[in-house]
Amino acid sequence: MNLVKITEVTEKFGISSRTLRYYEQVGLLKSERPPFEKHRFYDSENINRLQQILVLRKMQISIKDILRIYESQDMETLVHSFVKRMEEIDDEISTLSQLKAFVSDFLNAMTAHGITHISALPLLYEKAQKEFLSASKQDLSMETLNSISDKLAKPLEMDIVTLPPMLMITSIRTDSRKSEVESFWDWLSANQIPFGKPGSRTMFEFQSGEDIVIMQKLPGQISDMQKCNESPEAFPFEYREFAGGLFAVSSTFADEDLGALQYRMLQSFDDNPSFEVDFLHNGSLRHEALIEAVFSPENNRERINIYVPVRQRKPNFVDYPEFEITESITYEEIERANPILQEYGVDFHKITPIYDPHFTVLENGQAEFIAWISERKLDTNVAVRLPFRVDMEFLAEEESEEYLWGTTEGSLWFSHGGCTYTMNAENYADKALKKHALSFQQPVLGNAFSYPEIGNIPHDRFNKLTWIVGEEHFAVILNGEVRFCGVSFPYMDMDLHLHTPETIIIGTNGQGKKRFRSIKISQLKTSAKTNTIQGALKMNVKQSNNTLPNLRQIIHPEYGQNYWFNGCASYLMECLNEQDFDYWFFAGLTGENFTQIYSKNGFRGNGLVDYRLSEKGNHHVIEEIFEKCGYACTFVPLKQALSNREMYVQMLIAYIDKGIPVILNDYGNNPHNRFGWGVLVGYADYGKTLLYMGGDGTVPDSISVEDLLPKGYTEQDDHCHGWLFIGEKQESKDLAEIYRERILTLPQLLTYEGENYCFGGKAFRAWADHIEKGYFEQITPEEFDNWGMHTVYVCCLATNSGGCKGFLDKALALDPNMTFISGIIELYRKTGHYWNDDNGTDLEALGGGFNVTLEALQDKSKRKKIADKLRAFADCMDEVTAVIERFKAK
């Protein structure tokens, strides 16, 4: 096979390597990298195709049309593309003919009316327009001229640049707060401050209200003097820190229509996959559009650059090709292809434990680590950017993993930025569900992958684990064995050197003990990039995107916040400046932190709110929650939202623009697999794409309206899916009364039983009977869903055993007469002991907690003990009800 190196291709055809990479990304070309070669190569078939593409591009056939030609391999498609191009040329000819006729008619009118001076042109224009219109001749309206001008306008040429932060002095006076350009100009000259040279990006002007403002970078010595507040009277003009950042820049002559150019720059961002204009929440730009003088190729015409603030969009992995897995490669070959630039040994004494895991440095210099839960982790305080490498020498103690907590007991993971890399993942307590997987998220793009059976870790011996997240290979090596190696990942073709260094965080899950002998983190070498990022940028002056300014994580599982609706409600109230209505308030008000759940006929959700919404038409339950807080609200069922999708999307946009999120409990065709309650916090592309926060996510996920509100949706069950729009505050409720009413009405929840589910003591007893009577004897390992069938109820009782205390303490503080509350606190604390601290007879010790197995639920002796323990929980709930009823009887 005759292969041609990429550098030879660029020289032969006069095309940049970035253009070649773009053709590969869209699927027009394909290259290959032979073993031990740094560069990509093209075979004869792809060289021939490149020649065809270049011919089509010379004829100005669009990339989209070229893709259609090659996808169909049909002559009809090629002919259609040529016909389309000829029609475009005909349109251009027609537009030029209109302009020619316009100019000709105007010239004839000027001659006929004896116009000899340019100052008379406006009067002639009005008169000629009336005459021509009355004679039904050529339309000389300004709208027609603008339309012709727009059609003939050349495509915008723009670049994306980064302006650095700098201290600037402006023409705005400190006393009057008005811009005085003339006196500012004189002041700069009198103080020998050098004027910014054209194109140096040190002097700009911009419009602020009705004022034109000049902004000049301060020289170093004057900047230092101002920072020290020396001679304040010497600075009669306002100085400010210019934050810099990304800007789109286009050039024009100063005598052109600058407003029209700025409008076209904004308009040209529509549907751009890489960038969008940087709007603030209030609809204004991050910074006013800047104008900078540049040297002009024509001495008699001034030329300027216009800068518009933009920001990068997060890349979407669905727009990128798949990577390739390579199996015939050695550890040594991978190391050679991904050389280390700088290695950092992690000092165990400088590691920062997060959320209080067990972590100690032993006398022999090794470090001992038990996470208990995945949120408890270790900050290495070593930051690297992509590409990087992590080497760990560690021992996993098998004996300490005997209880098999959680889904990833025995795993060892680290995170870098927003991506996590896990060895020995997805280890459920039930052996049939164990995967011993190697899982990771692709850098930058964040899409997740999991490969079962290749992540298993030998126990009770030291292992050497190496992750190479490289520019050439993505590889995982354990004890010298290449467990996984991939090439041609999309992230590898990105400008990795532009990414910010991120700290390496290390973690595991469960009570399994890890001992570290050494941890090394290495910055890998990147290939030099010689050309800058460019792109066709499209946008509209109308605000196309907006995001709430006060984004935060909705719930914190590490604090026992396991009911997502309450986190969403808390965030909504926070945006309305309601400080009393936090997560714990709503978890108590809804009753979720007090009430055990149990379904008689299948999984219904994770808490009381989900259960109540699982019955058709029961969405008034959500509206009643906010009514108790004094607010009106409207729950829009999904079916209703779909019937008028555009109206509700526009309603959402209006809410976001006002700074108010919208709660939702349906995610449609969710590409991020983050199902459950969430809040819509932003939009992009004029509402075609929506942003939402859910669960413990720290940054918004995006989802298209087509996915969130899919056409042709049919209801799968009776569950009340939909959106909740908060309304006006109707009244200020007495906080003490809200707490008191909730406590005194708890018996209604704790004794409820309906056709489909039950709560409180009845839930515990129904659950116990279900287990003891042998329901699980008929369940096969393949059918066993440990969360939906069992551990969701364990999570509920574990959460409530301590989660309700804050609400109870607050209620007692607001109403000291409810002295019985201390007894309720003790009863819930007692359930906590029943769960995992009852001298070997607790639910976890009996094998009926988070560590449940199908074998335990099928064994008659074991399941009886589990059922008996659940009935002890029921007795506690009955006593809670009795305590409250005795108080009410008084």
Task: Please tag this protein with its features.
single chain; 890 residues; alpha+beta; Multidrug-efflux Transporter Regulator, Chain: A, Domain 2; Multidrug-efflux Transporter 1 Regulator Bmrr, Chain A; 6 domains; seven-stranded antiparallel β-sheet; 26 helices; 34% helix; DNA-bd_dom_put_sf; DNA-binding transcription factor activity; DNA-binding
Architecture overview:
- It contains 26 helices and 36 strands.
- With 890 residues, the chain is an alpha+beta fold.
- The chain folds into six domains: 4-58, Multidrug-efflux Transporter Regulator, Chain: A, Domain 2 (Orthogonal Bundle), CATH 1.10.1660.10; 78-152, no CATH class; 159-313, Regulatory factor, effector binding domain (Multidrug-efflux Transporter 1 Regulator Bmrr, Chain A, Alpha-Beta Barrel), CATH 3.20.80; 323-524, Jelly Rolls (Sandwich); 546-579 and 608-731, Alpha-Beta Complex (Cathepsin B, Chain A), CATH 3.90.70; 742-889.
- The strands form seven sheets. Strands 12, 13, 15, 16, 18, 23, 24, 25 and 27 form a nine-stranded antiparallel sheet that branches.
- Helix 21 (760-772) runs antiparallel to helix 26 (860-889).
- The radius of gyration is 34 Å and the shape is globular.
- It starts with a strand and ends with a helix.
CATH architecture of the largest domain: Sandwich
Percent helix among the residues? 25-40%
Q: Give me the secondary-structure category.
A: alpha+beta
CATH topology term of the largest domain = Jelly Rolls
The largest sheet is: 9 strands, antiparallel
Main CATH class of the largest domain: Mainly Beta
Mean pLDDT: 85
Pfam families: MerR_1
Domain HTH merR-type: 3-72
GO molecular function: DNA binding; DNA-binding transcription factor activity
InterPro entries: DNA-bd_dom_put_sf, MerR-type_HTH_dom, MerR_fam
